[in-house]
Batch of 2 targets.
Target 1
Amino acid sequence: MNSVLNILMVGVGGQGIMMASDILALALMYSGYDVKKSEIHGMSQRGGSVFSHIRYGEKVYSPVISEGEADILFSTEEMETVRWLNYAGSESCIISTKTKINPAEVKEYPQGVEDELKKKCKNLVLVDHEALSREIGNIKFLNVALLGLLSTHIDVPVDSWEKAIEERVPAGSYEANWKAFITGKEYKTEES
Amino acid sequence: MGCTYKYKEVILNRLLLSGNEAIALGAFEAGVMVGTGYPGTPSTEILENLTTYPGLYTEWSVNEKVAFEVGIGSAISGARTLVTMKHVGLNVAADPLFTSSYVGVKAGLVIVNADDPEMHSSQNEQDNRNYAYAAKVPMLEPSDSQEAKEYTKKAFEISESYDTPVILRTTTRVSHSKSIVIPQALQARNKAAIGFERNLEKYVMIPAFARLRHIEVEKRMQRLKEDVNRFDINRIEINDTKLGIITAGICYTYVKEVFPKASVLKLGIVNPLPADLIREFCTKVDSVYVVEELDPYFEIRIKAMGIQIEGKKYIPITGELNPDIIRKSLRIAGYKSKKTLKEGLKTSLKLPPRPPLLCPGCPHRAVFTVFKKLGLTVTGDIGCYTLGVLPPFNAMDTCIEMGGGIGVAQGIEIAQGEKRHGKTVAVIGDSTFAHSGITGLLNAAYNKRSSLIVVLDNGTTAMTGMQPNPLSGERINGEETIKLDYKKLAHAVGIGEDNVRIVDAYKPEDIEEAIDSLLKSKALSLLVVKGLCVILKRRRKRA
Ligand SMILES: Cc1ncc(C[n+]2csc(CCOP(=O)(O)OP(=O)(O)O)c2C)c(N)n1
C-alpha cells in the first residue's frame, strides 16, 4: 500500500510560508521520501493568502492535495486556518498560530474565528505566537520555530532538518534559525 | 501522526526543483549556449535560473518576438538555444514561429511555452498545443520536474535530428511544483560547428524557396509521425483493462492518483501524435477516456482516427483540472475511484477575502487616485498597475493584452469623436511600454491622434518578479546598459517639448496638474510617472 501524507501550509504573503514549505520539503527529501510541493505564485504575492501543498511517501504522483485529505493543516494566520478548513478532515491535525492579520481594506477582524476552530477541530494545536516569538527573541524566525513544532508530528530525523535549514535560510542566519527550530520543537502548546 | 514508510538511504545528489528550475538544468546539461525570453508567469524562473549557470549567454529580450528571432539566429549559427515565454507570449512570437518551422535549425532550438490553465496570472487560458499543430512543429509535455529536465534534453535531440524548432509545453502546475530531480553530467557542449553558413534556399523565405521548404516540413512531420510511435517518452501502462485513459502532462499525475488500477497511455509528445501506439492501446482496453486540460486537443484527433473515445463530454473544458474534478467527472461516466473521498471540514463563518492589491507605498497608487478624481476613461494594460481596476481605485476601463491600451485609447477617441475629447487616457507600465507600447505611440503620431499616454515607470518589471528592462538601465545579469530616453523618443515621433512631461509618482498634485494641462493641449502627449517599485527599493536597501 502506497501511503502518502499530505501537509497543507497556509498564511499571508510575507509570513515566510514559502521558505518554511521549502525547508519541510527538503527535509522530507533528505529523509528518503518521494516528495512533491505545489504552490501558485504570481499575483497572490501581493498581500494575498499564500498556500503550499506538500505530499510525501514512497511514491507521489499528484502535487496537489484534494479537499478533506490534508493530514496536517499548518497555518500562520487564524482566519486563513478557517479559510482552508475544507482541506482538512475530521481526523486531521490542525496547527495554527493565533496571529490575526486584517486584509488590506478590512478594518475589523471577523469575530469568532478561534471559537470556530475549537468547535470544528478535534486535533487542534493553537500556538501563542507572541509567547513563542518572545522565546526565540525574533519574530523573523517564527516560521522556522513553527517548523520545529511541526517536526514533533512527523517522522523526519533531526539531521535532515539541519541540512534542509542550512540549505534554505539566508547565509549567516543558520545558527539563529536552528535555535528557533529547537525552541519550537520543545514549545509546550495548549492542545485541545 | 505516524508514517509506516521506512527511510531509505539519503541520496545526497538529489535536488528538489521546480519544473522551471529543472528545465534550466536540462538546458545546461544539454550544453545550451544561448537563452533568450521575455518574463511571464509561470515561465519567468527558467531564464533567471539559466543565467546562473556558467559559460552561456542569456538575455531578457524586449519582447517574445525578438527573443524568438534572436533564438533563430543563434540556432542557425550552430549554438543550442533555449527561448522562454508564457502562453500569450507565443501570440507575440507567432510570426517567427510559423516560418522558423520552414527554416529549421542547425543546432537545437527549443521554445519553452508555459500555459496557464485557470489563469492564475493571465488574461486568458488559451491552449497552445494548437500552435504546435498549426505551425507543424513537435511539442513535448512533461508531467513533473524530472521529466521537465529529461524532455528538455530530448527536445534538443529532436530539434537537431529533424531540423525543426521544438516546443516544450508546461502548465503552471508543472512549472511551479517542486519534485525530485537527479542531475547528470554536462553533455558535450555542441554537436554542430559554430558558424553561420550561407544557404539561401533554407534561410531566405521568398515564395520560390518557401514552397520547397514547405515540402520539407511535410516530409519531416511524416517521418516524425512514424518515429514517435517508438519514442520512449510515450508509455503504455497496462493494468486493469476495463478502463483505459489517454493523458499527458500534469493530468497524468492526477489520473494515477484517482485511478491507480486503470490502464494508461501517457503521451510525452503532443505533436505529432503516435497513431499506431494510440490504436494499440485502444485495442487493449474496453473503453477509453481522454483526460486533458482545456481544449479537446487529443480528443478530436483521436476521434478523427475513427476510434471511439470520450473526453470533454465529462471533463470540463475551462479551468485547471485536479484529482477531485477527474474523480467526479468519471464517476458520471460510470467509473468509481476506489479511493474514497474524505469529507472536508465545513464552516459557515463568513470571512473577508484577501485579494491581491497594490502594495502599501506602491508608486502606482497616486496616479489611479487622480484618474478616479478626474473621472477619466482609462484604457489599461498588463502589469501590477492593472490592480488599479479594483477598489479603492476602480480606475481602469479596459485591459486586453500587453501594449494594447495605447491602441484601444485611439480607437475609443476615433469612435466618440469630439464630444469625449480629452477624457481618455492610456496607462502602461515601463516594461510593457518597451515590449509593445512604442509601436502604439508611433501609430498615434503617424495618424495624427491626440491621445495622452501615461507610462508608469517603477524601474522594473514588477508583476513578474523584478526583471530589468530597457528602461531600468540593467541587463539580466546585473550588467549596466542603456536606458531608453523618453524625451528623445517623444521628440523623434514629433511630440512637442511641452507635451512630454516626467513627474514624481509621489506628488499627486503634480500628476494632476500634468494630466490636466496635457489633456487640455489636445495634442499627442507622453506623461512619465516615475517612482521606484517599493519591493525593489527594500531589496536594494537590504543588499
Ligand atoms: C505577451 C505577454 N508577455 C508577458 C506577459 C506577462 N506579464 C504580465 S505584466 C508584465 C510586465 C509588467 O511590467 P511593467 O509594465 O513594467 O509593470 P509593473 O508590473 O512593473 O507595474 C508581464 C511581463 C503577458 N501578460 N503578456
Target 2
Amino acid sequence: MKTFEEINKKIESRKAVVLTAEEIIDYVDRKGLDAAAKEVDVVTTATFGPMCSSGCFLNFGHSKPKIRMSEAWIDDVLIYCGVAAVDVYLGATQLRHNDPANMYYPGEFRYGGGHVIEKLVSGEKLQLFGLSYGTDDYPRREIRTWFDIHDLNQAIMVNPRNCYQNYNVAINCSNKPIYTYLGLLKPDMKNLTYCSAGQLSPLLNDPFYETIGIGTKVWLAGAQGHVYAEGTQHSPTCERSPNDVPTEGAGTLALTANMKDMKPEFVRGISLIGYGVSLSLGIGIPIPILTPEILKRTAVKDREIMAPVIDYSRDYPNRSGRVLCRLNYEQLKSGEVKVLDRRVEVGSLSSYPKALEIAHLLKDEIKRGEFLLSRAIQALPRSQAMKTLEIREKEE
Amino acid sequence: MITQKLLLHFPQSATEKPIVYHLVKDYNLIINIFRARVTPEEDGFLVLDVTGNEEDIRQGMAFVKSFNIQVNEANKGVRWDSSKCVQCGNCIPHCPTEALYISDKKSRKIDFNSSLCVECLSCIENCPFGACSSIF
Ligand code: SF4
Ligand code: SF4
C-alpha cells in the first residue's frame, strides 16, 4: 500500500519507478503481482484517436471601439458567440461556411473546426470575421482581423467527451459502401474499423474508476490538464467481462487544458470522407499504483479486452442493439479477423504507435519530476446507464 | 524481362505524339498504364509499368526523352508524407497492393513502398490526416 503523497515525494526526488501500460504486462508476469506492486509507483496509459466531442473557449480581448460579437467565423468556420462579448466556443466538428457537405456524395470535408484547432495550436495565423447588432457600450458592428494563439487572452480546450473506455468495431453488412465516422466501410463485410488503444487505453486500465476521477491530472496533447467532469454519455452500467473490463463503450471523461501549452503533433484536424470533420487528440493519464489490485488492472492485455462488432449499415443507425460478435484487441491487431465465418480485413482509426509515444513521453516527464499526480476530488459515477431520446408529443 | 514503374512528365507541347504506340510497336515493350492526365492546356503526367528486356527499355526511354519528356524512376504520382501520417492504419484495408503496410506487427508502425503502388488513389480518399496526396 502506498499513498499519493508518498508517490509524489518520490516523483519530486526523481526516484519514482514508472512503466507504461504495455511494459507493465511483462513486468508483472516476471516479478509477480505483490513484488511488482511494491516497486512500481506509476503506470502511464495513453490513447490517440478521433474525439468529436472536443472544442475550445477563446477570448480575443477588445478592439477599439469595442464589439459584442453575435455571429463570428474563424477561417470561415462558425464559432459560437452566445457567451460574453469576445468569448467564443469553437467546436471540432463544425464545417466551413459553404462546404457542400454531402451534397455531392460522398463529401470530402477538407477543412473545419478540428483543422482550425490544429492551426491554432501550431501558432499559425487565422482570420477572424465577426458581426454584431451594435449597442451603446459595444458600438462596432463588424470586425475582420488576423490573429494567432499568442494574441489571445485565453485558449482553453474544454472537451465534453474524450477517452471512451472501449469502443464499437464498425462493419457494413449491406451491399453498398457506407461512409461513417469510422471511415469507409466496404459492402459485404469486406473490412471493419476499430478505434481504441486497447491495453494502453486509460479507462481500460482502471475499469471501475478507482484512481481516475474528477480532478485527476492528465496529459492533454502535451499540456498538463485535468478531468473536469464525467464525460457526456458516461455509462458505467454496462456489460463487463469477468475482469470487470467493459465490453462496450461505457465510461468517458470530460477534459480541459491550456492550448498554449499543447504540442501540435497531438492535435490533428481530420477529414472523414462522406461523414465530416473532427479532431484527433493524444491523451495520457498516469495511474498511481496504490495497491496490488490497482496494479493488476493495469496489467490487462489486448486479448482480455473484448469489443462489440456492430453493423453500421442497419443496426447502428436504427439503434437496434444487435451485436454481431465480440472480438478482442489481439485478434483485431492481427490485421484479419473472422466475423460470421467470413474473413474480414481490419483497419483502425486510433493510432497505437502515437499512444505508445505518449505513454513514454508522460513516463519521462514523471521520471524527471515534471509531472506530479493529483488525487481525484470527486469519484466518477460507477453506476448509471445511458438514456435514449424518445420522440413524443407534448401531451404524452 | 524486367518491369519498371515510371512517371513520365510531359511539358505542354509534347502531347500530340502517339508515344505509347511507338513504345509498344518499335521497342517491344509491354505497357501497363496506372494513371494518366494529359491535356493540351497543362503539363501532363503518365504513370506506367513498362516490361521488356533492359536494352529495349533503355532505348524506349531515350526515344521518350527526345520529346523533352522527363522520365522519373524515383518519384511516383502518389506521395505519402511520413510527417503527416499518425500511423492509424485506416488506409490499410483500402490499399489493394500492400504498398501501404504495417511494417512492425507489435508497434503497428505504417510504412509506404511506392514501387508496389498502383495509383488507385483510394488512400487519398481514406486518409483522414491528409498524409497521402497525388502530384497531379
Ligand atoms: S490513414 Fe493516413 S494517417 Fe492513417 S496510417 Fe494511413 S497514411 Fe497514415
Ligand atoms: S494509391 Fe492505391 S495502391 Fe497506391 S498506396 Fe494508395 S491505396 Fe495503395
